Amino acid sequence: MATNSEQSTDTYSTDPNQIVYDEKEQVDFEVELISVYFAEQKPKLIWEAKTEVYSVKSGGTPANVKARFVNKKRRNISTDLEDDVKLVAGQQVTVRWEEEVQEKGPDGKGKFIYFKLPKGKIKGKVLIVASCNGTNGKLSIEIHENKLTNEELIFTNPVKFLIGDVEKTKVEFTINNTFIYAQEISLRPKADVDLKSILEKLEKREDKNAFLYFKANITDTEDQIKYFNNSNEFLNEKDTHFEVKNCDCGEKYKDLIECTRYNKAFGPVYWGELPLKDYDKWDELTAGNTVSADEKSILIAMSENEGKMDAVQSYDSEILTAGAMQKTINATGYGELPIQIWEFKTEFPDKYKCYLESCKWEIVEEKTEHKNSAGVVTKTTYKYKAKYDGLEGKDLKNKIREGFEESKYNKKVVCPPMEPIISLMKDNDYKVKQIKDFIKRLNSALAKKPTGYSYPISSYITSNLGKATVLDNDVNRPGHVANCFGAALDSFFTKNSKVSKNPSEWGVNFSTYEGQILEIYGPLRGEGSYTMTNATKRYTDLKSKL
Predict the structure, then answer these.
(1) Which domain of life is it from (predicted)?
(2) How far is CA 366 from CA 210, 321, 377, 428, in A?
(3) For residue 102, what are the β-bridge partners?
């Protein structure tokens, strides 16, 4: 149902998307449509003064009392005493602060503000908001698609949408001197067959998006009708269109997730369909110097020991494992995958919102300040934790593996939490992110110094086979690399006591010595205290490719 709500000047936020208006003075016998936009509704927040009398438990100072009241939604915390006063048990301290709360109207209900949205998703809910001066008449608003440079339209104009469960092609408001008019809609037609047609057309577009604007019409009034800029079209100028994408949360992969087992544990796996060698944009990456020809060869050879670029699973000790490097969300919710996704979010915030945030996933940044004895911050560290629908750690693992049991082994089982991750892994920008991280990992592995030696591993290894073998070790057992390579050098120099320990002096014998070191190091990665699985076979496989 269309709603009318008051909107007044607010100085609380400087968010550029927050729509704040001074109501224009109403001109007699005139109806003027000022703007129409897509929006979301958020609480109107204010700072409210608060006071509480705190009873001291066991000494301390007012500064300690204030620390008890620290909260992200509080500011300007103070007491009625100086910070360094010595308190005693039972003493009363008056604490004052300002707290962020939702403003309420005369009726006691919370007030809201409309925030203009530049983008949305198919099937998502959004508000159509209009600001219109006038005391009478009817305002009708249609949504249209501008195909811009595309060959065909995705939608049929005017665009069909839902108000509740009813399909509409226009929103109607009764103009009654309210100024702000709002209606929530769902961006989808009612019939599933029509929705399917839209999604199929979107998939064919390179950026998988469409651009919408409004057409408005004022009727049923004898007053003068005016439109902003003398046009009844809104959001139809360059760079103002509302972009829509299909953030389907990976629902199309729900029938492709299989129940597998690891020892006695059962869990979901999507084996993927894209080996790194089959990535279709290698030429673009090498032409743009993102990846060298040698790096490409190393990554392709080594990645075949890992997973496909779009592989996702949750059947071992970790909560979730994904991608060509098999990065994980570990048992506590941290790990390399949350870090990689956070970095992706920083570079592509809209894609993060579409693939994950709108599909119940989130990566939370945890900031820790380390202080010296004087209270001065000397270092700040960050950790990144993955959550799904508010769940984390063991609860998250259980949620992902819900319904995966022995009776379902080798059968397809629906796993909603995993579907958005599969979609993310298939995104081209995320694939590029995986490749860049692979290269970063290669360089950091080669920069490590073997235990007991002064030169980095890169001084002893220059062949693609050698680099791939070190990378293979670092991806699977990063904490073993320095010790294991150092042990391989120890073994080599024990057998070749006359060879200089400075590899820059090996001259024409360099490749021979490197080969001998690799023949020791390759299998050693899985021997004794070095626990890399199938180390010898993996090394043999790499030799066959490089």
Answers:
(1) Bacteria
(2) 36, 21, 16, 28
(3) 45
Asked if residue 158 has a cis previous peptide bond (ω within 30° of 0), the answer is yes
Residue 61, phi then psi, degrees to nearest 5: -130, 165
Rounded to a whole number of angstroms, the CA Rg of the chain reads 31
Write the pLDDT tens digit of every residue in 417-426: 999 999 999 9
Q: Which two tokens stand for residue 307?
A: 């997973």
Per-residue pLDDT of 371-382, as tens digits, reads 887 778 899 999
Sort strands 92-102 and 224-227 into parallel, antiparallel or unpaired.
unpaired
Q: Using CA atoms, how far apart are residues 202 and 419, in angstroms rounded to an integer?
A: 19
Residue at 477: amino acid letter: R
Average pLDDT over residues 283-307: 88
Angle made by CA atoms 238, 241, 242, in degrees to the nearest 5: 160
- Which one is predicted more confidently, 423 or 3? 423
Task: Say whether 299 sits in a helix, a strand or coil.
Answer: helix
Q: Residues 60-85: pLDDT tens digits?
A: 999 999 999 998 899 999 999 999 89
Structure-block tokens of residue 335: 């790990």
Instruction: Look up residue 339 and give its two tokens.
Output: 């870090």
- For residue 104, the 8-state DSSP code is B
Quote the tokens at residue 430. Answer: 């995320």
Q: What is the mean pLDDT of residues 450-457?
A: 96
Strand 92-102 vs strand 45-55: parallel, antiparallel, or unpaired? antiparallel
